[in-house]
Design a protein that fits this description.
Largest sheet: 7 strands, mixed
Number of helices: 6
Length: 181
């Protein structure tokens, strides 16, 4: 089932002043994506507790998306957990800045995937960002790490070569989240 990105969860940042290292803490969430408690990141991941994460698909203005090869196959361009107190959109902006050297880039929400085995039991907020073709082209030159695909190629990968995709990328394609990136 496809979920829209709830605006209140995108923009809301909760300052947790008492945390010693909020960047290394995650909010454990309930079935409605509301925070229950804050725990150390490694404990949340080790115990497979539900939390929030973001996935970013970067694309150029020509309609080509850049996939990244990970341990489980071809997947989103970038991925990260949402630190305690941070909004999902702020997390995606941080990824855009730290991994893609793009400050204040414009993000578009693709949707919210509910917790499942493919998302690592996280509420996965999907975003896309349009970057200059020169940046995309430079990254795509590392063919052992990146794959540049258009919309039809993306659909073809899902339909005929799903085993080459990461479980989360395959689930996003099957769920219709990437029908118009």
């Amino acid at each position: 089932m496809r979920h829209a990105c709830p605006v209140d969860m995108l923009m809301k940042t909760i300052p947790y002043d008492c945390l010693k290292n909020p960047a290394q803490s995650l909010e454990v969430v309930d079935s409605n994506n509301a925070p229950l408690c804050i725990m150390a990141k490694q404990d949340v991941l080790r115990q497979c507790l539900p939390h929030r994460a973001v996935a970013l698909l970067v694309r150029d203005r020509r309609g080509h998306a850049l996939l990244t090869l990970g341990e489980q196959g071809w997947g989103f361009s970038s991925y990260g957990q949402v630190a305690a107190g941070m909004s999902c959109e702020s997390s995606a902006q941080d990824i855009l800045f730290h991994e893609w050297s793009q400050e204040g880039g414009r993000l578009a929400c693709l949707g919210l995937m509910p917790p499942s085995a493919s998302t690592g039991l996280s509420f996965l907020h999907l975003y896309t960002a349009s970057l200059p073709h020169s940046i995309i082209k430079a990254r795509a030159m590392a063919r052992d790490r990146h794959l540049l695909v258009d919309q039809d190629e993306m659909k073809g990968l899902g339909a005929h070569f799903g085993d080459l995709l990461s479980p989360v990328m395959y689930a996003a394609l099957e769920g219709g989240y990437l029908s118009h990136f």
